[in-house]
């Protein structure tokens, strides 16, 4: 089975390959094709994967190419993890937004909109190529903003594109651990959009254990989201929000923390990974060891500004191992081998959330089998959550419209309607500033 990884020179590719190495079942991936526009990054990551595979019998064969059509042709699965504009673009997204006093995070608020506007045209081109060159392939999208990009690709690939994210997985795992439950045995009632969802229940043997968690201050203080949001706020919500909702519920504090930081997250990763890629192509250096060191530092500093502003402390050791690669592998196994499983995924809504239309991509538990991912029925969202979900989905639709039409006015509308952008005037200045720094937004007129 052939797996093509777009963004194959990306830093987290070794996580995916490591998961593939551990899969010994029949029908597993035997060939991995890495595609990237940067040949140097491909060389670095290929070296890491070669060290990972050393001594592993039957390790999937790895090839690398900068030719997109060649990479896609005949693929069974396509894993998309591209970053249009690179980490320098992410750092610019943050800098421009913070200069206007608004959030510049890569998937939330102004930064997410800027990233989406330059990513959607590229993702749509990929979707069209997949439909032509590998019509039987399943596309697993991890490209951010994941929900928005998945919806853009679904307009050309239908249900054969599925978005994944490790954030709900990590949240469900932490809630289960806090309750003393085995995460593998618990059903997580999670619903929303990508980076905008809530755990509303955690059922073990048919019993919802979340009320017990919300009633116990000690348990609430034992995991990251409990410390991040505070016990009183979680009890008020009656749910545990995805960590990214900290940007909404504590926006002023977060923006201030980002403005006061020595470097933004994007600038930190840009500089950190520049060092890694230089080191990893050095023949005298173990590329795998360099990657391990860099990854440990990367994970430990994740959302550091939010944790600092909330006094939430350091990340727990169990949360430093990622998880999206496990979701990707479980998804591929379920589809390729009909190993039925339940995963939280980004898929078309159908009738799951009554406040959204059928084609809106949502992030919910899905039953996955050989025919794809099928969203499970969900109880209606409470008013506050429904309002936020509808507002952000409306912004995503304006981003899609701007990317399709090239309309600068529609791009301004997308920024202005976002809950974290508080002025039409600011929205206009954001579009002007982003089009100056991002060549990928030259299409807006």
Automatic annotation (TrEMBL):
One of its GO terms (biological process) is carbohydrate metabolic process. Gene3D superfamilies: Lactate dehydrogenase/glycoside hydrolase, family 4, C-terminal, NAD(P)-binding Rossmann-like Domain. Keywords: Cobalt, Glycosidase, Hydrolase, Iron, Manganese, Metal-binding, NAD, Nickel. The active site is at residues 166, 244. The keyword Iron applies. Binds 1 NAD(+) per subunit. Residues 190-421 form the Glycosyl hydrolase family 4 C-terminal domain. Its cofactor is NAD(+). The record marks 106 as: Increases basicity of active site Tyr. InterPro entries: GlycHydrolase_4_CS (IPR019802), Glyco_hydro_4 (IPR001088), Glyco_hydro_4_C (IPR022616), Lactate_DH/Glyco_Ohase_4_C (IPR015955), NAD(P)-bd_dom_sf (IPR036291). The keyword Hydrolase applies. This is 6-phospho-beta-glucosidase. Mn(2+) binds at residues 165, 195. It comes from the Bacteria. Substrate binds at residues 90, 144. CDD domains: GH4_P_beta_glucosidase (cd05296). One of its GO terms (molecular function) is oxidoreductase activity, acting on the CH-OH group of donors, NAD or NADP as acceptor. Belongs to the glycosyl hydrolase 4 family. It holds the Pfam family Glyco_hydro_4.
């Amino acid at each position: 089975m052939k797996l093509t990884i777009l963004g194959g020179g990306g830093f987290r590719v070794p996580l995916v390959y490591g998961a593939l190495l551990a899969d010994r079942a029949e029908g597993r991936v035997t060939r991995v094709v890495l595609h990237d526009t940067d040949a140097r990054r491909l060389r670095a990551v290929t070296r890491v994967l070669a060290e990972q595979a050393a001594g592993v019998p039957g390790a999937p064969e790895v090839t690398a190419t900068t030719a997109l059509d060649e990479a896609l042709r005949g693929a069974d699965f396509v894993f998309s993890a591209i970053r249009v504009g690179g980490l320098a673009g992410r750092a610019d997204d943050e800098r421009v937004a913070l200069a206007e006093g608004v959030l510049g995070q890569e998937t939330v608020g102004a930064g997410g909109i800027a990233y989406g506007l330059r990513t959607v045209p590229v993702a749509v081109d990929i979707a069209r190529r997949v439909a032509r060159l590998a019509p039987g392939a399943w596309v697993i999208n991890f490209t951010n903003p994941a929900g928005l990009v998945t919806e853009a690709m679904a307009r050309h690939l239908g249900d054969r594109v599925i978005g994944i994210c490790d954030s709900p997985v990590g949240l469900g795992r932490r809630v289960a651990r806090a309750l003393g439950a085995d995460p593998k045995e618990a059903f997580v009632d999670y619903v929303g959009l990508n980076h905008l969802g809530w755990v509303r229940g955690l059922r073990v043997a048919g019993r919802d254990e979340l009320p017990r968690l919300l009633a116990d201050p000690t348990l609430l203080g034992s995991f990251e989201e409990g410390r991040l949001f505070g016990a009183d706020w979680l009890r008020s919500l009656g749910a545990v929000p995805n960590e990214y909702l900290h940007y909404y519920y504590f926006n002023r504090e977060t923006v201030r923390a980002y403005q006061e930081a020595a470097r933004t997250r994007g600038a930190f990763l840009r500089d950190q990974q520049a060092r890694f890629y230089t080191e990893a192509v050095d023949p005298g250096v173990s590329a795998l060891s360099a990657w391990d060191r860099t990854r440990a530092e990367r994970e430990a500093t994740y959302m550091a500004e939010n944790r600092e502003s909330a006094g939430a402390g350091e990340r727990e050791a169990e949360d430093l191992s990622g998880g999206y690669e496990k979701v990707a592998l479980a998804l591929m196994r379920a589809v390729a081998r009909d190993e039925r499983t339940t995963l939280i995924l980004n898929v078309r809504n159908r009738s799951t959330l009554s406040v959204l239309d059928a084609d809106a991509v949502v992030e919910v538990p899905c039953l996955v089998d050989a025919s794809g991912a099928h969203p499970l029925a969900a109880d209606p969202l409470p008013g506050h959550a429904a309002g936020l979900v509808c507002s952000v989905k409306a912004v995503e639709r304006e981003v899609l419209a701007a990317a399709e039409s090239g309309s600068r006015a529609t791009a301004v509308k997308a920024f202005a309607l976002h809950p974290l952008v508080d002025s039409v005037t600011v929205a206009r200045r954001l579009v002007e500033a982003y089009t100056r720094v991002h060549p990928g937004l030259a299409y807006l007129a």
